[in-house]
Structures are given as C-alpha cells and as structure tokens.
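Honest question from a wet-lab person: if I give you the sequences of every part of a complex, can you actually get the arrangement of the whole thing, not just the pieces? Trying it with mine:
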Amino acid sequence: MTDALKDRVVIVTGATKGIGRETARRLAGEGAAVACTGRDVTDGAAVVEEIDAQGGRAIFVPHDVASEADWDRVIDRAEAELGGVFGVVNNAGGFFVKPLAETTDADFQSLFDVNVRGAFLGIKRGFEAIARAGAPGAIVNVSSLMGQVGFPGAVAYCATKGAVTGLTKTASVEGAAMRPRVRVNSLHPGVIWTPMITSQFGDDPALMEAFAADTPLKKIGLPRYMADAILYLLSDESDHVTGAELTVDGGRGAD
Amino acid sequence: MGSGDVIVGGEVRTVEAVRLALEANVGNGGGAIVYLAPQGSPPGIASLTPGRFASEVGGGLMEAFQNLREGAASLRAAGRGGSIVFVAPPAIGRAFDAVRQGLRLMVKAAALELGPEGIRVNTVLPGGGGAANGRAAEPADIAAAVAFVASDRAAFMTGADLVVDGGEMAR
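Yes, you can. This is the full assembly:
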C-alpha cells in the first residue's frame, strides 16, 4: 500500500459485489475514503465492515444508479460524511444473455437504464461534485470488452457498453476543459469471474477453466486485476491519461 | 534476460522515462521496454516518395519487429513469463502514423502467440501535442504508463493499448 489516494473521497457504484467490492477495498487500502453504493443493503454493510477491519474509511449508501433522487442522496452523504468528492467509479451494471430475436424492448430499456443512464448520471453528478470540491478529479467508467467488440447473445449489453465508451470520450474532452479539470477514462474488462458471470452461466469450476483456456493468457479474470487498473486510472500516475479505453482482458480482444 | 532487464531500442527519446520505469520495477518475469523513435514529418501523400515511405514506415516497423523477436526469445528462454512494452512514436496525423497503427496490430498478434507462455505484450501510445487538457506530455507521464503496464499490476493486460495523450484522440 502506497497511500496513492490518501484522504480522497471516491464513490464506487455497485460496490456490493464483484469488481466494485474489490475496487472499494483496494481504494480504501490506498487511503481513499470510499462511498460504497448498491442495491443490496446486507452486502453493502459487509463491504463497509471489511474496509473498517482493514483500517480504512467507508460508508454504504443504498443506490439505484438509474434514479436521480438516489444520486442526490449518494452525493449528499458522501460530501457530508466523507468530504469533497475526488472521484467516481461508475461500476454498477447489469448483464443478461439472450439472442437478439428474443430481446424485448423492456429487456433493452431496463439494461439501458442501469448501464447507460446510470453512468451518465454518475458522470454528470460527479462533475458537479468535483467542481464543488474545487480540486482536480477523476472518473472511471466500467465499460466492457463487449463495448468494443460484438458478442452473440449480448446485443443489449454490447449496445449499452458501447454507449458507455462514447459517453466517456465526450466527457473526457469536456472534463479536460474544466478548471479544475476532471479526467474521464473507460475500463474494458474481459471475462471476470464475478456474480455477473456466475448468475448467468452458473458457478461451475469447469466453466471457469473453460473461460481460462479460451483466454490467450490462459487464466481467468479476477476482480483484483480490475481494481489495480481502476486504481491506476484514479491515481496521479495517470495524470495525462484521459479519454482512454483501457482493455484488461487477458488478450481476448486481441483476437 | 534477468528480472528487470530492459532493452531500449531506437533513438532514446526519454531517458528519464526509462529510469522512472526501472525504479517502478518491471513485473516478476522481467521484460523489455522498447521506445520507437519519433517519425520525421512527411510531405503530403502526393509528394511522398515510395522510397521514403518504405524507409520510414518499413524501417520503423522492422525495428519494432526485431525488438519483439529478440525480447520474446529472451523471455521464452528464461521461461518465467514477463512483459514487453512498446512505446509507439507520437501521433503526427500523417502517413508515417502507419508505424503506430502497424505496431498496435503486430502487438496484438504477438500477445495471442505469447500469451500461453505468460508473456504479455502491450503498446503505450503517446499523443502528438494536441492534448485537450492544455498541457504537453512529460516524460514522467509516459514513464508512469510504461511502469504500470510492465508491472504485475497489469498481470491480466495483454494485446492492449494505453493512450497517454491528455484527451487528444478522444475528439
């Protein structure tokens, strides 16, 4: 631990599970005060306990990222209980597998609400909060390898993650012109072994091995790899990095 | 090649960057960091001769290929995985940018081939001076990116690009 984010306030959405949970712990380990948000109150309390136990600082705020009223509460509580906001990690997201022909308007709309409106509101509210804090800030949007390439059975997911890639580009250019400035980058994970994957495909070790075998580096993606990448994109090490698409996928997208 | 060994290819443009990257340690398997020289500024396509194109673009890619081949052979012989990071020439918005783009794709091919041996190959892409954030890249910016990509913090990253350009390419 290097205190790379000492006393900086970071909001991590979808921090109750998977990539978000690991990221919240990692950032707290680097000295950040983390506002963990999500829909699962029990898991939310557990994350805060974990961070407390490692000597870090965190709060949990219940959050539906598609709700403007919820964003109001998240920002208010982060500012009141932790301090001026430095960063936002727009990590919360949904995923389902369904062929295009079977994907309904309702399926598409509900995924769009979480994955795209959620990220949009997070960037917008993040910009406002960082401006109020009066110091440079950083936003990381968790897109996907599927925001860069197509994947059969994931038409809605690919569309939403492609939208997050585009949101990031525009926000990065606007953020670069702000004073204090805000950096905005997207992270593009490959297959990462989290509840998002296991809820769709089953929590099966044989499947995990199959995913690993199908990845050029011959290993399964783990949340900690994503936490490392997000930490890099938030820290001063990446001070000149904005509008970038960082793909961390074990080489899957190189094919 | 031992742990932390570094090959510097081409014209060394950012000595400071190499030093900083070394201080931050290359990942456990050791590896190579290859800086490619900036391209000269070519005339427009109409007056660019095939000979000059071949020497600049062919030469730039050949240098990358030779470093890739040598780096991969050393890492393979050591048998502990590792990382090769290329720093592409800065973008100039002219025909010689073919080196950057050719390098990106060669790196992807190399990543697929070397991945099963635990050897990661990635590209850092500096901007060309048109940053959206109102400042030019410093050697330390590039070095920090190289240090991240080379380290075990990027253990699942291969065949990828890291753009370090202050938002230049986002617009």
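Two things worth pointing out. The longest strand of chain A covers residues 182-189. Helices of chain A lie at 18-29, 41-53, 68-81, 105-133, 155-177, 195-201, 205-213, 223-234.
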